[in-house]
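Narrative summary of target 7.
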Amino acid sequence: MRNLTLYAASATDLQNANVTATAIDLDENAIYAASERQDLDGNVSVEVWNVGNDATPATVFAMFNTVFSSAPSANASQIVSLRVLPEVQRLCAIMRNGDITMLSLEDGTVEVEGTVEPWISAASWSPDESLLAIVTGEDKLILMTSTFDVVSEAPIHTVDFGEDAPINVGWGSKQTQFHGSLGKAAAQAPAQTLVGSSPDDDLAPRISWRGDGAFFVVSSLSPASPTNSMRRRTLRVYDRDGKLQSTSEAVPGLEHSLAWRPSGNLIAGTQRFGFEGGGAGTEGRQDVVFFERNGLRHGEFGIRAADLTGKGEEIGKWGYRVRELSWSSDSNVLAIWIERDEGDVVQFWTMGNYHWYLKQEIEAPAVDGQVGRFTSVSWHPEQALHIMLTTKRTFIQRKYAWDTFTSPSEPPIDTGAVAVFDGTRILMTPFRVQNVPPPMSSAQIALSSHRSPIHASFSATSDTLAVLWTSGYVELWALHTRLQGGRGEVMDPSLVWSGSLDVKNAREIQLVSSSKSHDLSTISVLWTDHRTDYVTSLQVEGSTAQKETTTALPAVNSRFVADRGNLTCQTPSGEIHRYNSEQQKFLPVAHFHDFCLQSQRVLLSSSQDTENQTIFVGLGSSGKLHISSGETHHVLATNATSFTVASGFVVFTTTAHDARFVPVMSLDGLLVESRDAEVKQEKVDWETRRVERGSRIVVAVPSAMTLVLQMPRGNLETINPRLLVMEVVKQDIDAGNYRKAFFACRKHRIDLNVLVEHDEVKFLERISSFVEQIHEVDHINLFLSNLGRGSQPKENIAKLCDAVRVELERKDLKQYVNSILTAYVVKTPPEHEAGLSLLLRLRESDPEVIEDAVKYIIFLVDANSLFDTALGMYDFSLVLMIAQHAQKDPREYLPFLRELRVLEKYYQRFKIDDYLKRYESALRNLSLAGRFNVLVEGADRFEEAVAYIETHNLHDAALRIWKGTDQYNTVLELYGDWLFERRDFRQAAAVFLEAQKFSKAMVAHEKALEWQELFYLASQTGMSEEDVIAMGYRVAEDLTSKKRHSEAARVLLDYTKDIREAVIAYVQGNHFSEARRIIALQSKPELVEDVVHPAALESCNQIMEDINECTEQLRKQLNRVRELRVRKIEEPDAFYGTEDVALHNVDVMTDISMAPTAFTRYTVAPTTASRSSRYDPSTLAIDSINLPFLRRTSRSKRKMERKVGSGRKGTVDEEEYLLKSLTKLAARFATIQEEARNLLPHLLQFTPEHREEGMTMQKHLANFEDELQSSLEEIWTKPLEENPIDSWATRMEQVEKERRTNPVDKVPKPDLSSSKKGWRINLLLFES
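Modeled conformation, tokenized:
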């Protein structure tokens, strides 16, 4: 769907020259042209021009003379080949007389390297200038190196096919088929087909290289023979060694033109038809035919002879002939150089979807009243779509770009029309109405001119197309596109106006404005005189041109910018200028950093157009997508391939094969970030969508919510991006057009909740309009179902459903009964009972609709659930109705219903609730049934209720039900027993107290070790002194077992009066101060020696044992950490379990035979590693995070955590385990310090033995503290890291470090500074 547009052109005059060949120096970006003239002596004078550029005029670079050669070739110039050899800085000119002339590019000296006898018919250098292929006048092929050493020499004409000769076993041939009455002899008889050459053949051979230089093809005429007077042209393919590879099949009428496609898949030539020895076809027909490297034909397309045929007086029999063929460097465009009676023309042909399009034509400029003739045509070897042409005195350069001619009209008149040039036809397709795959189209415009147009432009405000020719001829067409469905033509184009403007070398046209009635149009044409670019504007009203104005542009080779309602252009440097009508000139408004082949103006808002609301978007040839406003510039992407602006988004495709959507309103923010250099630009998260590889945007149609993409092979794909759809849906919602928005969401599978979430307040206000527009019951049901499954809060869903339900009930309850039921059911939780209540109401008022309604609600809700809900409403008629329509088996429910009917009301409901497992309601009904029985029969059902409470643990409900009754204390006692059984003694005690069950409360207090409450309650109940003492000993023993020594001693002192046992409890808890105080208070000094002194020594010994254990653990684990860190440095692969690189190319490894992977270090066991390993594409490991079937369950995660915490020796987690263990050791040391702090003062005051033990303990404790502090510093100290130089290696090293996490970073360092500092006794330090 793309066209070739001319965006740059230049013409350089070479005074008094006769240019015949050109060459380009890619290193110096210099172009050389060779001019030749024959003097009276028969010699040829050759001038080599340096064409230069815009700043440097063309000059004669060098001159030399050579002998004229009258080789038998039509239109033969004396220069066969002109090529720059950059390695030796020379220009090689191969002359037809056989001379190989070298010109130095430094000083212009000329040197003849040698001569080939008798003459040279054709010559061609390989693409890398390493080989030279020459065909001599004796039909010999010579292959030389760049130093002109002969690689091979052999005659061209040979009967051998070549090294790639096919092997024919006869399968499928006529000899192996049934031939009927003619017999096998007739089938084996050779076909009598005359194969000759074209009358337009210039008799000269041709050479063409493949793009990679691996092969070249030679086209030559075979000599006449006594048996065949006709000469035919044959193609032969050779390799770089000059060995024949293949020979083409015989093609009648094959001509001299030859071009091998740089990509290598096709060899192009031309074929004539309609004469003896030519192709079998209509006379005058001419095709471009293609061959494969093996010599077989591979397709063709016809040259449109009707537009080329002349009088036949000068150029051949048919008035035209094909001179040469040449491919663009990217292999996309085939240039055909055609000589005509009216002048030469070069046609550009491209292929899409297996159809060849004629995109552009270049006519040779007339000189001195004579028809224009080209003398050479060649493509730039590196810059695609850059062609160089020469006439006798002019060097012409033209640069083309791909462009898509699309309609810029906006909703609601956007047609999405696209125009495709194909010769003198324009193929039109409005994508809003239909997607017609190329090369077909919805309509065709047959242009009146016999030449191809150069540009076309659509109107932004009407359905109009303007077409431009190079000569300045313009046609204005009204397209009459039908936007609505129906029969008839989708598009009916009609010519509105045609005429010529007073311009030359026209390049671009733009419909700046056009009235909707097509009566008044303003068109602008960009043209050039190769020194200055101009814009000529013309107003056309009806069929009359009214006014024509011309304005000069700021620079040559400028290009229009798509700007609705304004005349804007872009210079080659990227500056954007807009025409100012007051000053009548172009003024700068923005700039791109690169020249953008496609550019467009974007408005940030629909308000009045001002400069700060305008942003220009442009796509450069390098793939950079620019945005600019004023002096500010920003690059949106560096890999864009195409873009468009639609529905408030800048949509572009990338080389990463995705389409990205940038909100237009966010562009201003990006420019603000670019304006402030200090602002760090964050990565913007734009919406993306994957597309097929190589896809490009053709057009976006906002009204149809579509984006049309074209694949590289030419086929089209129409997608509906969610953002474009949502934009239209939101506009429809804002406008209150809910029906259109609803069907758009339904068609494109968008959650219908958007109808509400976009503006919930307005939706509730317009609820009546919503129901009025979407009046179909099924559609309302679909909306409500989606609303119930939405992500909104439950309360919000209920409010919306109720609002819709109320409106439906007000409108027509009978018609919308199904929708009303849906509104009840989709709530969370669903209101099944309300829906069934509606059925009961309808059964009385509208019994005719009840059956369908029941069936519908059964469809919405599970029949068994609905049966239970109806049963829970205690309405047996409703239960029967549901059961019958749900087709339940009567044998299942009728006996059950009969049993229920015979029961009294509340007991019946109790049974129903119990069946439905509504236990709390069942208990309430059971209590009511008991009260009813007391009144009627004189017996209650309390015992049954107690059993029911215990069965279903309904104690909370029972307390609420029986509160304030005589049975309340019984229920409380029952609840307390239940709590006591679950060992919730504290709660049980409170319940027993409330129930006045003091004995049970005391037992619960004792079990809970709430001894204060226990002894208070014992005193209140008058417990005997013996029982109190016995209970005191029991409680003290339990408190001691829980290490609550101080509380145990207090109980013994207060309630048993046992001083000795109390002192023993104190010293067991290391409360020596309190023990000594009690001894002194109670005057029991004998207990000091009997109890306190031995206990102090025992505590001291225990602390010493703990210190020794800690010291041993610290030293052992410190040494192990040192060993692991040495191993980590010396053998990192063994430590971390790095995989063998040799395994990286293994495609499949089973769980049974899997070699150790990176996860083996966690488990050591290979089988476990294979089950829990991770897959990484770079290491062929298996990642349980990425593969769902290997994802760890919670059980396996806990198992892995236990493995990490176990710290088994030899695993990678061992060091982390050791660090955690040392952290616990530091915490244990803090506890030991506190114990020593309480003990040391007493050891100082006791006997000398105690004093000695205290000194020893303090010394050991201080030594361990220092050792622990130094060990922790050593372990948790990280080595200083130098700032590495940023490089690929350092970044990879950093990634590897992050993968190998240091355990020191995981485990925090223990802080010994927070431990007790005052535990030492300074007096002991002096004595030691």
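Residues 607-611, 678-682, 1139-1191 have pLDDT under 50 and may be disordered.
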